[in-house]
Design brief:
Layout: H1 2-23, H2 31-50, H3 54-63, E1 68-69, H4 70-77, H5 81-93, E2 97-102, E3 105-110, H6 113-129, H7 133-141, E4 149-150, H8 152-160, E5 165-168, H9 172-177, E6 179-180, E7 184-185, H10 191-194, E8 203-208, H11 214-225, E9 229-236, H12 237-242, E10 247-248
Parallel strand pairs: 4-9, 5-7, 5-8, 8-9
Antiparallel strand pairs: 1-3, 2-3, 6-10
Helix pairs in contact: 1-2, 3-6, 4-5
Length: about 260
């Protein structure tokens, strides 16, 4: 908590210094107002600046699933702990992430649900307006022609009627941080050994972190290759939660 408070204090101090330096000697109501407005909008821009890195955007996507220690974040984004800590400090200065200490370990989380909404909005605007992004997504995710999707509304209705088996194929730590009510934990790396626990005639829906998460696609392909009727949720857990649909604390894994 002290580290988080210190970072916020530094940000406020820099903003106040900027305003003082640019207002000094100016006529009231003229240049002073201009300096105040400049400082205000520069402070707004600090938030965008803090996400102006692919790795920081990836961190926001990861922390939308739940809090993680810096070492796990570093592994997920393919960076050293030192580089990851640098990115996290920049995000903390802009108020995007918060921390808690557990012994010698520091855990990071998004500062609020609004930060997750900001990241999702930035991602969706890019998908709609940035030329070539669809090609980049295809290069990462592969062809999706054979991947059928299900909307949140349809999935919610079918879960309520008990018509589908829902698999959360994210890492178990993310499932434990929160998941769709009724889902079973089946991390993609362990999916094959859990398949025997599924009814052979079951219709299965898989979900993961969001619309650009490859785990659900991989799960659907694997399930289909073994004769299951399988689809993926159109997006992921954060979108489901933001929509106000039922979420739960951990229950049991597939094989339990």
């Amino acid at each position: 908590m002290f580290e988080e408070w210190a970072l916020r204090r530094e940000f406020v101090k820099r903003s106040n210094e900027y305003l003082t330096n640019h207002s000094r000697g100016s006529d009231y109501g003229g240049m002073a107002d201009r300096a105040a407005k400049d400082a205000l909008f520069d402070a707004f821009a600090e938030v965008a600046k803090a996400l102006a890195s692919g790795r920081r955007a990836e961190i926001a996507d990861l922390l939308a699933q739940g809090e993680r220690p810096v070492e796990e974040i570093a592994t997920e984004i393919g960076q050293s702990v030192a580089n990851t800590s640098h990115h996290l400090r920049a995000m903390a200065r802009a108020g995007l992430v918060a921390t808690r200490r557990d012994g010698t370990r520091i855990f990071y989380r998004l500062a609020s649900g609004r930060v997750g909404e900001l990241w999702a909005a930035m991602r969706d605007v890019a998908a709609e307006h940035v030329a070539g992004l669809e090609h980049l997504a295809r290069a990462y995710l592969g062809e999706r022609d054979g991947i059928e999707v299900v909307s949140r509304a349809e999935l919610a209705a079918r879960l309520e009627r008990g018509e589908v088996v829902l698999l959360d194929v994210r890492p178990s730590a993310e499932f434990e941080a929160g998941h769709i009510t009724g889902a079973r934990s089946a991390p993609i790396a362990e999916l094959r050994r859990h398949l025997r626990a599924l009814p052979p005639d079951a219709e299965v829906v898989a979900y993961c972190r969001g619309p650009y998460c490859v785990y659900a696609d991989e799960a659907v392909r694997e399930l289909a290759s073994r004769g299951f009727r399988a689809r993926r949720l159109i997006d992921g857990f954060p979108e489901w939660k933001r929509a106000g649909l039922p979420v739960a604390a951990p229950t049991a894994a597939v094989g339990s």
